[in-house]
From TrEMBL:
Cofactor annotation: pyridoxal 5'-phosphate
Record-given protein name: aspartate transaminase
Catalysed conversion reaction: L-aspartate + 2-oxoglutarate = oxaloacetate + L-glutamate
Signal peptide as annotated in the record: none
GO biological process: amino acid metabolic process
Alphabetized UniProt keyword annotations: Aminotransferase, Pyridoxal phosphate, Transferase
Gene Ontology molecular function: L-aspartate:2-oxoglutarate aminotransferase activity; pyridoxal phosphate binding
Domain annotation Aminotransferase class I/classII large: ranges: 32-380
Annotated family: Belongs to the class-I pyridoxal-phosphate-dependent aminotransferase family.
CDD domains tied to this protein: AAT_like
Domain of life: Bacteria
EC code(s) of this entry: 2.6.1.1
Pfam families: Aminotran_1_2 (PF00155)
Amino acid sequence: MFRTVAQFDRIGEENAFAVLARATALARAGRDIINLGIGQPDFRTPDHIVEAAVKALRDGEHGYTPATGILPLREAVAADVTKRTGAPVSPDNVVIVPGGKVTMFAAILMFGEPGADILYPDPGFPIYRSMIEFTGARPVPVPIREENSFAFSAEETLALITPATRLIILNSPANPTGGVTPKAEIDKLVAGLADRPDIAILSDEIYGQMTYDGLGHTSLLSYPEIRDRVILLDGWSKTYAMTGWRMGYAVWPEALVDKVRKLAVNCWSCVNAPAQWAGLAALTGPQDAVSAMVAEFDRRRRVVVEEANKLPGVSCATPKGAFYAFPNIGMTGWKAKPLASALLEEAGVATIGGPDFGVHGEGYIRLSYANSTENILKAMGRIGDFLTKNA
Ligand code: PLP
């Protein structure tokens, strides 16, 4: 397909970055801003991971690496994914990328073209739709509903499939809702795709290790019958508090992996070498920092939900994964985007309006609880005061 400059006008934005910039500018101007907007852990990357990067720099790991990543790292990813999903993963199918987003970009580019349909969650991570539109494919939103605990409905997803469907994007645990799709629902979805072997699945499992209440996580790779068409998106950003390192990975099916390798050669050559050694230390070193972080998110989750349910006109379902709550603000009299903007400008609390995640996000705002309990309590107090004064 021939791409033109004009086609780049179809690329959308991720408003969380604009909100972060505005929150930072307000804070620089002396305002006291609490950020519940940005989706990144507020923890530092664990020390042993940082030390591995420093050591790699000192040891002279300054050059290009293989385009898909250093072998020990791909081996470690393959072993980790096998341990967590039961799928026999070869290091040859692992591609290290500069952030999970790059896997999204590659997969959507591979299947998107005019005349193709791509299904994606709505509300969902905004880059899915942006990239689908970039390719000229038809974006087909799969509604993610509060009444369904913000899980995918297999029935509703399957009903949206047409002869033109090329790719389905799944995300569980989910941004922005914190929804987790139960195994029984994924079973149904996988069964429903049996007669359409031509449809690929991009399974965004970047929050896979962040589930609560003993719920656990079901990976799409754990289904042998569809492994030859599942692209598993994961990475270090959320699990190891490494958003700024730009480290992600994907497991690609045999038929596609060499195409991505060529894209890597053409586009980013390789991820920076010290970060890859840090990623290896993350996977092979102690995991207690991960469990401590998840336990802390769990405590904050309870605080956010409890406080959100005290707000006038607000009801908040308990999220089951990731580190987001998605309270329903339908009874406040506010539309979501003006409310998010007023909360930042007037109450000094950064949040993201639900419509930034799709049309089905109207009536909700996203609260990231990647902030201290003290700040969360303060922020929720400010939101309460604001809503009481501006009902
Ligand atoms: N997928 C989802 C659902 C996300 O929320 C994010 C980041 O917010 C990403 C992927 C991208 O992660 P990365 O920072 O590794 O590119």
